[in-house]
Every structure is written in C-alpha cells, then in structure tokens.
Design brief:
Layout lengths: L24 E6 L2 H11 L3 E2 L10 H5 L3 E5 L5 E6 L19 E5 L5 H10 L4 E8 L2 E7 L5 E6 L3
Parallel strand pairs: 1-4, 5-8
Antiparallel strand pairs: 2-3, 3-4, 6-7, 7-8
Length: about 160
C-alpha cells in the first residue's frame, strides 16, 4: 500500500472547463409581484412564460401568483418568487444587502439612448450613469425591491 506524504494534497474531483453549459435561471425574491412583473415584463420587455411554457414544477405556484417566470432574449429564465414580507436589512438600496451586486442586460448600442429615455419616462431613478467606458456604455437603476439592474452595450 502506497502512502502519501503528510503534506501532499489529495485532489478532489472537479467539473471540467466547459462542462457547465450556461446559466439556466436566476431566482429573485420580490416583495410586490405586480410591481416586479410590470418592471421586468412591462418596462424591460422580457417575455413572461405562460401556460405550457411554465415548467411543470412551477405551474401551481404560477397559477396562485406566487411565482412569475420571464425569459431573456438569450434564453436565461428569470424566476420571481413572491415574498411579501421581504425587507432588506437597510431600506437604502445604495447599501448593498446581498452578495449579488446587479443583473446586467445587454442592448444594441444604437438602442441604448432609447432604453435610457424609457427609464426616465417611467420615473425610474438612475443609481449611476449613464457611464462610458472602453468596454461600452451602461446605466444602473433599481428594480421595485432595490435590486440593482444594468442596461449596457458594447462600444459603438
């Protein structure tokens, strides 16, 4: 029997690079489902899944208004879970209260100003920006629960 030196590390199995294919979904707890549905579906234009598009495991929760599912243009599912008693540790959204910092949506550079105008016309408070960087332009704002959202584009 071969023994390893006391200071030798035993390699634990890991996933191979590329084994994870994509992010399937992101789930957010929301205090006001109606406001969040309007924000993500109405303002940001994400398509809400309905009927047979809803995963079988969530159909009852969707039917009772406890969950809403949206799909982004690249197929990522955004699940909103009703949490009416949700209160952040600090009501000021500038005080980050989760380990997640923000959710970023990409937009064509020619449509960035139109998106910014839509935010302003809907009285969405801009947290930061618009900013221009070598990587492109971005604007940061909050959803109804104080979670930061970004719309960004590559340089034109």
């Amino acid at each position: 029997m071969t023994s390893l030196p006391a200071n030798a590390a035993v390699s634990a199995p890991t996933l191979a690079v590329g084994q994870l294919r994509r992010v399937h979904h992101i789930a957010l707890n929301v205090k006001d489902m109606a406001a969040s549905r309007q924000f993500y579906g109405g303002l940001l234009g994400l398509r809400e899944l309905t009927g047979d598009q809803v995963d079988d495991t969530l159909k009852d929760l969707v039917a009772t208004g406890k969950v809403a599912n949206f799909v982004t243009p690249d197929g990522l599912i955004l699940d909103l879970f009703a949490a009416p008693d949700l209160e952040p540790p600090d009501p000021d959204p500038e005080q980050s209260f989760t380990r997640a910092y923000h959710l970023a949506f990409d937009i064509d550079p020619t449509q960035f100003d139109q998106a910014l105008e839509a935010l302003q016309q809907n009285d969405i408070a801009i947290a930061h920006g618009p900013v221009s960087r070598p990587t492109g332009r971005g604007v940061y704002f909050y959803d109804p629960d104080g979670f930061m959202v970004e719309i960004r584009c590559d340089p034109s």
